[in-house]
Amino acid sequence: MLSQNWGVFMQKFVEIKRQEALDYHKNEKPGKLEVQATKTLNSQRDLSLAYSPGVAIPCEEIARDPSSAYEYTSKGNLIAVVTNGTAVLGLGDIGALASKPVMEGKAVLFKKFADIDSIDLEVDSSDIDKFVNCIEILEPSFGGVNLEDIKAPDCFIIEQKLRERMKIPVFHDDQHGTAIITAAGLINAFHLTNRDINKVKVVCNGAGAASIACVELLKALGVGNDNITLVDRTGVIYKGRTEGLNQWKSAHAVHTSSRTLEEALVDADAFIGLSSGGVLNSQKIKQMKPDPIIFAMANPVPEIMPDEVRKVFPKAIIATGRSDMPNQVNNLIGFPYIFRGALDVRATTINEEMKIAAVNAIANLARENVPDEVSNAYGQDKMTYGENYIIPAPFDPRLIVEVSAAVAEAAMKSGVALKPIENLNIYKKQLARRLNPTASMLQMVSDKVSNIGKKIVFAEGEEERAIKAALIIQSSNLGRPVLIGREKHIKDTAQRIGLEGIGNLEIHNAALSDKNKTYSEFLFKKLQRNGYLFRDCQRMVNQDRNVFGACMVAMGDADSLVSGLTRSFNDTLNHITRVISPKNDKNIIGMCMIVNREKTVFIGDTNILERPKPEELADIAEKMAFTVTKLGYKPRVAFASFANFGSPFLPSTSSAREAVKILKTRSVDFEFDGEMSIEIALNFNLMKKNYPFCNLSDEANILVMPGLHSANISFKLLQNLGGGSVIGPILLGSEFPIQIVQMGSTVNEITNAAIFSAYDAL
Question: How many domains is the chain built from?
């Protein structure tokens, strides 16, 4: 039984998140997927190649040699994400159509984490044979099939039949993905507690698809057949039991006198929970061996909360399915990279050897020295292999390399790879280049500020978008939002659009605040020698929300400031900088992050300096390099120009050349060079071919633009034409953290700006 507190928690969670989730899926383009062309189609010639008559030629080649489909089509990098909607998350049998948002989400994860294209297929049939026939005849379209959210025991039968009939990988992630991550975590837990996998006693509560897959994989790894006790709703699955069994459960029946979960737990080393929240309590786990291993993976409420376990066994190793607790058992650690490795060698199946290879790769990765970006993803200063770190973080950038390569190698060794990889080291480098680091960066920033409680001022607190962003920050524990505005107006707006939680927000009316006198005196002291009288300062504090909010931050009553929705960037900045100055008498600059499918590039200065002098260009490079390093990237700076290293040698390119000379005198610890054109800066092969002397070790990821016009126009072109994501501008170099959004910013963009401001305040 769940406690009353958990019920309250879930009710609050649903209230806060429902509209946000609906808006996320509805706004801009409905859904989470779209199709993009990989080839140009800009002329009659392109059309003749893409379609008639040119398309006939690859068709003929594929008819002659079916394997060439992998060379001339997207088949080799295309996964079908398939369900019938009979066991969707915690929602149950909601039908094929209602499952589509989940399947689209799965496809997005494939793309974001492993650069695998996916199409979601919702098959409206619970008839096993119809379902199997439907997927089987689609084999020519795909390189692999990911089965998802299909009820047991149907999922066992469906997977088995498809694997027998199809010559491409078929993988039921609910079963095998969960089993692989669980097994990896248990291996490390056994290692840390000096337990022999061949002798451990394991109890698995829940006998669905995931549980049975866990049991089977653990046995394959060395756990004795009689050392795993499987428990379902009826009780222990023992030899001789007839009630509520099927062939898959019966296969794991054991000789035991235990009939209940509590009896089975006596002297157990490990508990695996894939059942219901709250089924365990302190009394039950007292029967286990000292320092037990508890994997309570029911979501969102575990079988037992970690703090309850700690009261009984302070040194227990605990894992859950939750992202807000250590040792999250998350399938995302496995399935994208397992398929990546399988596709890259054209594996005909995902066999036991490949699963075990994935288990060992994941387990070994957790034991390696943890890089900073992984620690950041967990929101901690430094993570080391131990009781709170037995499973890699989902955003660990090493996963795509280590797991995919291990799976590919296992496929080759076991004889199921049709296209073996000749050089695994080269392959690993190729895998690393596939990774889009943006997701991990954004997650790192969010996790770093999570639960810290930085106070974030939304200067335009009466704006609907600001209110929504503030509530997201509050409900996600990413900070303590403060709205500047008239309290009644803010609450009326929130009520009108149906927002919950507004009563918990801190609201300040600048005109009525008891801080006015203090802030006015502070501002007068700062501006009195710039022609301002005290009454001028008092009027600004009373009437200008940007000034009032900036005073809050400058005087330590808040940590950061977000504004820009109702005024131009320059107007907003001018008002804020009356209170908050640039750091170290340098310049505040704007930086934008440009992300497309292949690379991430930072551009600056996008907002402040019209025509930077060489010294200022060097400062821009330093500020950006520092921030980019802090975000988890290795900075490589290119001073952008229309010229390349003096060709043509014109006065307008001299500032970039001088900036390079200045940086050389500063002994900075990042790579830089220039002047160079964009096509050279972003194409390493071309760079090294034509300019082998260039100091960059790879393509540039920081572009220092020669002027405000080029920088601002560049990022706004990309922002409006599409083809990638634009994050920013992110302001750098202010005395206190401030972020100014564009007037047309979405709620998501405002929220990101607030998170960055809180991160800057750490």
Answer: 5
User: Token digits for 129?
Assistant: 């044979």
Which pLDDT value is given to residue 9? 41
How far apart are the C-alpha atoms of 247 and 217, rounded to whole Å? 17
Q: What is the pLDDT of residue 724?
A: 62
Average pLDDT over residues 139-159: 96
Take residue 535 and report the two structure tokens written for it: 């009454």
Contact between 639 and 673 under an 8 Å Cβ cutoff? The reply is yes
* Residue 27 counted as domain residue: no
Q: What is the full DSSP assignment across 441-494?
A: HHHHHHHHHTTT--EEEESSTTSHHHHHHHHHHHHTTS-EEEEES-HHHHHHHH
Q: Is 24 a catalytic residue?
A: no
Q: Which two tokens stand for residue 474?
A: 């509050």
CATH of the domain at 392: 3.40.50.720
Judgement on whether residues 323 and 403 belong to the same structural domain of the protein: no
Which residues have a Cβ under 8 Å from the Cβ of 756 and sit 6 or more positions away?
445, 730, 739
Best CA proximity match to 559, nearest among 696, 432, 704, 453: 453
Beta-strand ranges (E) seen in 289-362 are 293-296, 317-320
Q: Residue 675, preceding bond cis, omega within 30 degrees?
A: yes
Q: Which of 294, 329, 364 is the last residue of a domain?
A: 329
Omega into 30 within 30° of 0, i.e. cis? no
Is omega for the bond preceding 737 within 30 degrees of 0, making it cis?
no
Domain co-membership, 334 together with 305: no
Full domain range(s) for residue 708: 584-733
Domain end, chosen from 414, 435, 456, is at: 435
Q: pLDDT tens-digit profile of 237-284? A: 999 999 999 999 999 999 999 999 999 999 999 999 999 889 999 999
Residue 394, pLDDT above cutoff 90: no
- Is 383 domain-assigned? yes
| Cα angle 75-31-339, degrees, rounded to a multiple of 5 | 35
Burial of residue 126 (CB within 10 Å: 0-12, 13-18, 19+) is middle
- Do 172 and 205 meet the contact criterion of CB atoms below 8 Å apart? no
CA distances (Å), origin 601, targets 446, 595, 678: 20, 7, 11
Cα distance between residue 640 and residue 708, in whole Å: 12
Q: Which residues contact 689 (CB under 8 A, 6 or more apart)?
A: none
Instruction: Give the active site residue among 100, 106, 201, 284.
Output: 106
When computed from its CA atoms, the radius of gyration of the chain, rounded to whole angstroms, is 29
Asked if 154 and 212 sit in the same domain, the reply is no
Same domain, 607 and 668: yes
Structure tokens at 35: 């199709």
In this predicted structure, which of 69-73, 388-392, 437-441 has the lowest mean pLDDT? 437-441
Regarding whether 592 and 720 lie in a shared domain, the answer is yes
Q: What is the DSSP letter of 254?
A: B
Find all residues with CB under 8 Å of 87, minimum gap 6, and list them.
93, 149, 150, 151, 152, 155, 174
- The closest of 627, 601, 604 to 437, measured between CA atoms, is 601
What 3-state DSSP class applies to 375? helix
How, if at all, do strands 702-704 and 636-640 pair?
Answer: parallel
User: Is 106 assigned a catalytic role?
Assistant: yes
Q: Is residue 1 part of a domain?
A: no
- Cα separation values, 236 from 218, 252, 609, 694, Å: 18, 10, 71, 68
Whether 579 has a pLDDT exceeding 50, the answer reads: yes
Name the catalytic one among 51, 311, 525, 634. Answer: 51
CA triplet 175, 251, 264: central angle to 5 degrees? 85
Q: Are 347 and 411 spatial neighbours (Cβ–Cβ below 8 Å)? A: yes
Asked if residue 742 lies in contact with residue 567, where contact means CB atoms within 8 angstroms, the answer is no
pLDDT digits (tens, 9 = 90+) for 461-509: 999 999 989 998 988 889 999 999 999 999 998 888 777 778 888 999 9
**Cα–Cα distance between 119 and 107 in angstroms, integer?**
7
